[in-house]
What we know:
Elements: H1 2-87, E1 103-118, E2 123-135, E3 151-155, E4 164-166, E5 181-185, E6 189-192, E7 195-201, E8 213-222, E9 230-238, E10 248-252, E11 255-260, E12 269-280, H2 283-301, H3 313-334, H4 344-370, H5 381-394, H6 402-411, E13 424-425, E14 438-439, E15 442-443, E16 445-446, H7 478-488, H8 490-547, H9 553-560
Parallel strand pairs: 1-9
Antiparallel strand pairs: 1-2, 2-6, 2-7, 3-5, 4-8, 5-6, 8-12, 10-12, 11-12, 13-16, 14-15
InterPro entries: Neur_chan_lig-bd, Neur_chan_lig-bd_sf, Neur_channel, Neuro-gated_channel_TM_sf, Neuro_actylchol_rec, Neurotrans-gated_channel_TM, Neurotransmitter_ion_chnl_CS, Nicotinic_acetylcholine_rcpt
GO cellular component, one term: postsynaptic membrane
Domain Neurotransmitter-gated ion-channel ligand-binding: 79-282
Amino acid sequence: MQLLSSFGKKLIIIVVHRTYVQYIQYIYIYIYIYIYICVCVCVCVCVCVCVFSQIIWNILLYFIVSLYTYYSLQGEYQRKLYKELLENYNRLERPVLNDSAPIVVELGLTLLQIIDVDEKNQVLITNAWLQLGWTDVYLSWNPDNYPGVQTLRFPSNQIWTPDILLYNSADERFDATFHTNVLVNASGSCQYIPPGILKSTCYIDVRWFPFDIQKCDLKFGSWTYNGWLLDLQMQAVDISTYIPNGEWDLVGVPGKRNELYYECCKEPYPDVTFTVTMRRRTLYYGLNLLIPCVLISGLALLVFLLPADSGEKISLGITVLLSLTVFMLLVAEIMPATSDSVPLIAQYFASTMMIVGLSVVVTVLVLQFHHHDPQGGKMPRWVRVILLNWCAWFLRMKKPGEERKASYKYEHSPAHHASASSIQMGVMPGQPSSTNSTTNGHMNLYFGYHSIDSACCPPSSDSGVSCSGGRVGGSPNEEQREAVRMFLGEQEIHRILAEVMYIAQRFRDQDEAEAICSEWKFAAAVVDRLCLVAFSLFSIICTFTILMSAPNFIEAVSKDFT
């Protein structure tokens, strides 16, 4: 049994060992097969790449050779064509088959920028390109005979070019264009586009400045050829690449072809005129000139509100006038020295200066009224009626102290006082008078003006004292009068009354002088108020009338100030 069991174990070990060896062998076989397949695939790919790369290289080489051959032949054709075209070419000869036929030249313009508008020198500076086109019959060829040669470029001094110039040029060289090459195609069509900074004369109409629209002409034409030899035709203006200007808005550039006949010649002379229409942008001038002027004119009205006693009315008016003069000088610096028209802003400044100047004159008159010498006489009747009655009523002004005077008259009416002209010394009105000359050491003194001459009591007195029956107030009895005469004496009474009359007269003269001064001061106040109202209305009317008279005032305000 033991032998059998040991034999069985050995048999199992042998079987397992053989199975493991076979498994390892299978794995090696699979690895060999995978490596072989990969090597085959790599070889195939390399072969394919080599084959296709050779094909691609051949194709690229073919194209390179073709292009080289093409361009080398084109360069040869161009050289040959240039030589053939210019061999018998005369740039002084018009390129037409029939010498009696005109050559048609088309003229266009590309406006790039408005550089400056010099109002002082009346010059417009623009950046533009001219577009000239014509047909040169001597510069045509058959493209089939010259493969690849579609266009040629000639310097402008080698072939015929039209002598188109800017008639109203203000440049020192007159012709300010840069002479570029002329582009010529196979049919003989020539295209010449010379750029340039064009300086042209322009009449600047400053009547509506700064709300003005200017129209500047660019007049182009042949300098030597007439209309029978050169027919100038117009093309549209191109403004698609226009650069906006900070001072001017481009409204449009219309063109027109004209034919002029001069007295010397019967041939027509055509020209093409492009009108550059532009509107001035008013925001700058409004903020720096118009609005300060309006504010300064408003300050001029404050002269009439300033009290006359301040002593600064004339100074304020002169200061405002000088400030307007400075603004007027600023406007004169940018305006041309022309007498054809007065600028709108100059009209407004002139009207404002006139208002300020008149305000200074009126201020002098007001100060003369306010500080009028009472010794110079009373106010004339017509002045009193016009100023103190009519104008004061119209302006709803009342004389100072008029209400107090009415109240004073009411309080001192006869209904409130039984006697307003009695002079009592030591006794109050209404108290019973004693018949004795002295009472408790005090003297009660009564006297009346009836004991003096009638000259002592004038017919009418401004002091409120009235004479009735030759006496003042009541009538003291004879005993009291005798007591007064005995106590003072007749001469002493006359002397005292004379002194009292002198003092009263001085007070009356002083009151009269104060009344005259008050009357003149009130007249000065009325003139101040009247001029304030009148000048305010006149300033407002002038502002709107002058500024709104510009044809494009509403358009300028709506576009520039919004």
